[in-house]
Write a structure and sequence with these properties.
- The protein is mostly helical.
- It has three domains: about 1-50, no CATH class; about 60-245, no CATH class; about 250-410, no CATH class.
- It has 17 helices and no strands.
- α12 (about 250-275) runs antiparallel to α13 and α13 (about 285-305) packs antiparallel against α14.
């Protein structure tokens, strides 16, 4: 991006086009580059423009909102198919949950980033293959390989959304980092919309109940499900036109929850050894153990994506301690699942969990090492984010293996 900015400094039209296509990436690259080109009049104008951009919320145009609402309605229509086609919800939602959200987010970013269908036709081909695969995959909610395929296939759809978001710049670490940052922002904004929607729902139901009109069933099965399906799309659009909207919230959340999570992890590990709880023979305990591990990894990822040059060194120390504690946590989970495999044999679930824990352990060690180097001032903060973004394809490949190979390897059991 820096090379392109330098190249177009004497071509205002191309520079403006570059900015409109990649606003966040442009801003980050421009401010990093500015000390080198500060004598250039065009660079000075752009610096003043980017510094003085308005902080108030932008709402876009009516035409844009019509498109957003159309996508939201389509997502809601997909979510309502079990009611309209008399399909059992327990058979529909596990199979198609990812298809309610990700294809429509892909569509939204294609429109906002002016990506033609021809440029990403191969991605939609993969979406179609994934849909047909999960549609005709033998099994039901009681089959291990079926459940694993339903859980891991959305990771592939998430990766396809990332390719659209990054505009096919797959090897660009900075684009991957911005995509992770977008996911954190999307999570925050979606939760805010859902919280506001939940409050509105509560008020609506309470008011009508006062006049003996009970709308719970009708409201939740109509407006509720449409709102759930549309909320990520609306949130994504708001983030796209207001990149600053939650960018200041994410560091606050990271600063608050990283120390709290560290305290939780340390106290839990102490209590675990003090009580003498054995995770090796308790399947439910091990399952919860791994769910907590994934949650802590998400908090570490979220905290790293909120890094900036002004990030407190105290927060870096906290993240280093949290990473070390999580490595210990992951080591217990990894040893427990290996013990169960040796004692009771290999099953799809055990092999999938083993792969998850092994990948998380390797990634955690890399993150811990880079954080330690940052503390010693031998590496920049970017090295920490690269230790995450460079590992993302590995997670995607493993998810594809679990989704497509495990059912065949284990005979659809």
């Amino acid at each position: 991006m820096k090379e392109q900015i330098v190249q177009y400094l004497n071509d205002p039209v191309e520079l403006e086009r570059l900015y409109r296509q990649h606003k966040m990436l442009f801003k980050k690259a421009f401010f990093a580059l500015y000390p080198e080109v500060s004598n250039h009049p065009v660079a000075q104008c752009w610096y003043a423009r980017l510094q003085d951009e308005r902080d108030e919320v932008q709402w876009g145009t009516k035409y844009e909102w019509m498109r957003v609402m159309m996508l939201g309605l389509l997502a809601g229509a997909v979510a309502k198919l079990p009611d309209w086609l008399s399909i059992q919800p327990e058979d529909f939602y596990p199979r198609y949950a990812g298809f309610i959200v990700f294809p429509f987010l892909m569509w939204l970013h294609m429109w906002k980033k002016h990506i033609s269908f021809r440029q990403v036709a191969w991605l939609w081909g993969i979406v179609a293959i994934a849909f047909l695969y999960i549609r005709f995959l033998p099994g039901h909610i009681g089959n291990d390989t079926f459940i694993l395929a339903c859980l891991y296939l959305p990771v592939l759809l998430w990766a396809l959304l990332g390719i659209v978001y990054m505009q096919n710049r797959l090897v660009d670490q900075e684009s991957r980092f911005l995509y992770l940052q977008y996911n954190g922002d999307l999570l925050v904004m979606t939760q805010l919309i859902l919280a506001a929607g939940g409050a509105f729902t509560g008020i609506t139901l309470a008011l009508f109940s006062l006049i003996q009109i009970h709308l719970q069933a009708i409201y939740l099965h109509t407006i509720g499900i449409w709102g759930l399906a549309a909320s990520p799309i609306v949130a994504s659009y708001l983030i796209e036109i207001n990149p600053q909207l939650v960018r200041k919230i994410s560091p606050i959340i990271a600063t608050i929850f990283a120390p709290l999570t560290l305290g939780l992890m340390v106290s839990y590990l102490i209590a675990l050894f003090y009580i003498g709880k054995n995770p090796y023979n308790d399947r439910e305990f091990l399952l919860i153990f791994n769910i907590v591990l994934l949650g802590v990894m998400a908090i570490i990822f979220f905290s790293v994506t909120s890094f900036s040059e002004s990030t407190s060194r105290i927060l870096i120390w906290v993240l280093l301690a949290l990473s070390i504690a999580t490595v210990l946590f992951c080591g217990i989970a990894l040893s427990a699942i290996m013990f169960r495999m040796v004692k009771w044999g290999i099953t799809p679930n055990r092999l999938a969990v083993l792969g998850n824990d092994a990948l998380i352990m390797i990634n955690l060690i890399l993150i811990t090492y880079q954080l330690f180097m940052v503390i010693l001032r031998k590496h920049a903060l970017d090295a920490v984010s690269k230790s995450i973004t460079s590992f993302l394809p590995v997670y995607v490949i493993w998810s594809v293996c679990v989704s497509f190979l495990f059912p065949v390897l284990f005979h659809f059991q």
